[in-house]
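Blinded run. Sample ID left blank on purpose so nobody reads anything into the name before looking at the predicted structure. Input follows.
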Amino acid sequence: MAVAGCTVPSEGRASPAPAAAAVSSQEPLIVAPKVVEPKDARSIAACDLLTPAQLTSLDLLPNTARPDTSGGARTCGWKSAKDANLAGVTIATDLAIGGLEGLYLTRDTFEVFEPGDVGGHPSVRADGNRGGRCSLYVAVAEDQLLSTDGNLAGRPASDPCAVSRRMAELVLANLPHLR
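Blinded prediction complete.
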């Protein structure tokens, strides 16, 4: 890649352009936190990420699982035992968007972008709704991303991320370590 140098006049003299090495770099810019203890979700179906007992503890009905594999990710949704609201979990592996890094690079496109930590894994709440919905993304490994949303209907909630966070913690506890 060639970098063209430009000069900027300053009191009748030309100023040197920045060195090409300073402008272009071979090292990719890393902005997302690294995953310290990666887990592996590549061979697990989305509807199997949570046990029936865990779903019940989240007030979700295990027998309402709705799997979906469209869009390149594996998802599963369940109805709430309380109000027929939907909650969902998505697992994406070998991501073209670069896992959590991809979200960090597009952070300006989200109304809400709140970095955090779930179960020792870097996470981000990234969505367009400050009220009831909480799309929580957790880095399972550098190329594997877990997304949980405990309130797909976006109903108002005092802590919209409580169920999403708990779902993610339970999924992480179920996953084996990456080998």
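Unblinding after everyone has recorded impressions. The chain has a mean pLDDT of 78.
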